[in-house]
Each structure stands twice: as structure tokens, then as C-alpha cells.
């Protein structure tokens, strides 16, 4: 109903991604992105979850890009990836690896012409 912690949406996003439920994962990622400001102000045990919320809202942008790429939506994937890069200039290596893999997949789709505009 919207009163749950942002972390609930982040965990649902991960669970849906793991199970290949991309439509459900997209819904949760879109919720996190639409409520990015909430990551900074959500009250939870004296704001203890604030860093995790900000991290998850940034990762939701990357997840949207990955979902779009998996669906063959290259322009959407590129747009979400650009938003992610604006939000997180220097991600840690494990996240940077996801970015590199996504950039390679987008490039490959563009070369092979398999995007679904």
C-alpha cells in the first residue's frame, strides 16, 4: 500500500530478477526509481537504512536498464544506463562489472540489429 519500507521493494526486485519475472522486477524497479527521494528521508530506526535505500534506488536504475536490454529495448536500456551513470559516478567493481556487461550487450544488439524499439 506504499507504507512499507523501500527495502521491501528492493528485496522483491532482487527476488523477481532471480526468478526471471521481468515484468514484476520492472514494476519494483520503477517504484524505487519513482520514490528516489524517499531513500533519503524514509524514517526507519533513526535513518539507519538510509545508505542502503540510496544504494538500492541507484541499483534500480541499473536493473531497469538490464531488464530493458533483456527485453530487446535497446534505446530504453541506454537511457536507463545513462541515468544510472549520472546517479553513480564511480560504482564499486562488482557494480562496474554489471555496467560493462550491459554496455557490451547493448552494443551487440545494436550491431546485430535485434533491438525492438
Characterize the structure shown.
The structure is a single chain. With 117 residues, this protein is mostly helical. Helices cover 73% and strands 0% of the residues. It is built from 6 helices and no strands. The chain has helices spanning 6-18, 22-34, 38-41, 50-70, 74-87, 93-112. Helix 1 (6-18) runs antiparallel to helix 2 and helix 5 (74-87) runs antiparallel to helix 6. The radius of gyration is 15 Å and the shape is globular. It starts with 5 loop residues before the first helix and ends in a 5-residue tail after the last helix. The model has no long low-confidence stretch (mean pLDDT 90).
Please name the defining characteristics of this protein.
117 residues, mainly alpha, 6 helices
Rg computed from alpha carbons, rounded to a whole number of angstroms = 15 Å
Order of helices and strands: HHHHHH
Question: Describe the biggest sheet?
Answer: none
Residue windows where pLDDT falls under 50 for at least 5 positions: none
Shape label: globular
Q: Which structural class fits the helix and strand makeup?
A: mainly alpha
For the record, give the distance between the C-alpha atoms at the N and C termini, rounded to a whole number: 33 Å
- Report the strand count: 0
Helix content: over 70%
Percent strand equals: under 5%
